[in-house]
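Final report, section 2: Outcomes. Of the targets proposed, Major facilitator superfamily (MFS) profile domain-containing protein is the one most frequently requested by collaborating groups, and we therefore present its record in full.
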Amino acid sequence: MKGKDMDPTMKYPGKLTPRVVLTCLLAATGGLIFGYDHGVSGGVTSMDSFLEKFFPSVYAREAGMKPSSNQYCKFNSQILTLFTSSLYLTALISGLGASTITRKLGRRATMMIGGVFFVLGALLNGLAIHMWMLIVGRMLLGFGIGCANQSVPIYVSEMAPYKYRGALNMCFQLSITIGIFGANLVNYYFVDLLNGQGWRLSLGLGAVPAVIFLVGSFFLPDSPSSLVERDRLEEAKRELVKIRGTHNIEAEFNDIVAARESSKHVKHPWATLRQRKYRPQLVLAILIPFFQQFTGLNVITFYAPILFRSIGFGSTASLMSAVIIGSVKPVSTLISILVVDKFGRRTLFIEGGLQMLVCQIIMAIAIGIEFGTSGIPGKLPHWYSVVVVGVICIYVAGFAWSWGPLGWLVPSEIYSLEVRPAAQSITVGVNMISTFIIAQLFTLMLCHLKFGLFIFFGCFVVIMTTFVYKLVPETKGIPIEEMSRIWDDHPFWGRFVRSTEEDTKSHMGNSKC
Ligand code: BGC
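The predicted structure is given below as tokens.
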């Protein structure tokens, strides 16, 4: 996203050509793979045959063969959670490396490398006979995700005609939620196949979109901005003609070249970001992804089946509940896409926060009353399961139309051009580390906090909702180039920006003296 080409008042001619449509499909495949790998592990780790093979002691506790001190603790195993979480560590590392490859070799090269990792990771997982194959497979998938998440959104925003850019940004999030839902469905339908080895199909199936992604990125062209960045100007011009479907591309081409020139002047984006006037942007770059993960949503994404089995649901019922919950996300994300520019970001953030909080309190009470601290249920009436699943659905809907998409959209809108890549890396990095922490510590937290786990995340939701209310300015309808005014006008952040301006003025005054 470069300079003037983000100005919504500016008209570059061009239409939605087949080449651009293919780009969008490829981007959707990238999101699907991320969502699939995100959603598949929780169901798999609740399957008996999988547990018996790789985690016999968890299986023994879960099947009641070995006593567990507490029902809430029967899935407590740091290796079990490492299977889910390892992906986010490697995604973090490769995301940082991928930014250099994306710049030097182009977006397409990064996507192809990501595609190779995806295919290898999915195959290794599907064929796993040892624990290391599971963990290494997940790590390879993580490398793929780091590459894809770094390159695909940039590629799409560079290829898309400017007026479709915002919608495409959120479509990436939509395809993530569809991928999660797909994984929930696959787990449900495959659990009993292959003589109880259905988990192999669940894990291996990830290779199908991965191959599509790999082959697709091989055939797609690199973006004009990336070609300009690597000084291949004539090629960039020809590509721009093809993707816009017109020869009238001079204005856009010149802006891409101008943006490239001005970005050359920002020699030290990381040091620049530490300056006082960027403090609001830096704080939001860190806190928004951190809070997004500490809503606790991924506890449900990754571990809903385990959570349900811990509170006494059967294996199939647990996987089915995950499917029902998974279906809520894409629908709610779609609603968010439709209303975000009407109601604004703050309204959605605050409404979503309150909705999640109420649900978390109800869940803590419902599980606390029925299971106490021992986790041993009485005879669960049918209505009880319906209420628990229903409340979780409302909670997930609250996330999926607020912190889910906005956790990515708002950061991408508020960074000034000169610090955008550095700030975006921080956002992705904090998101991955926070996801890792939640994924790794969930079973331990459930074991110790019990039903209080929901209160724990509820406290964070109170903090983040207050934070939005007080400190996150509205960005709805403000062109990216004019975004700096949201800080100038803000009662708190204005102090940082204004004092910097005053410092600069007084400094200039002193130097005149
Ligand atoms: C988050 C993921 C989450 C997904 C679910 C994304 O925005 O970053 O961690 O699982 O939304 O909708």
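The longest helix spans residues 420-449.
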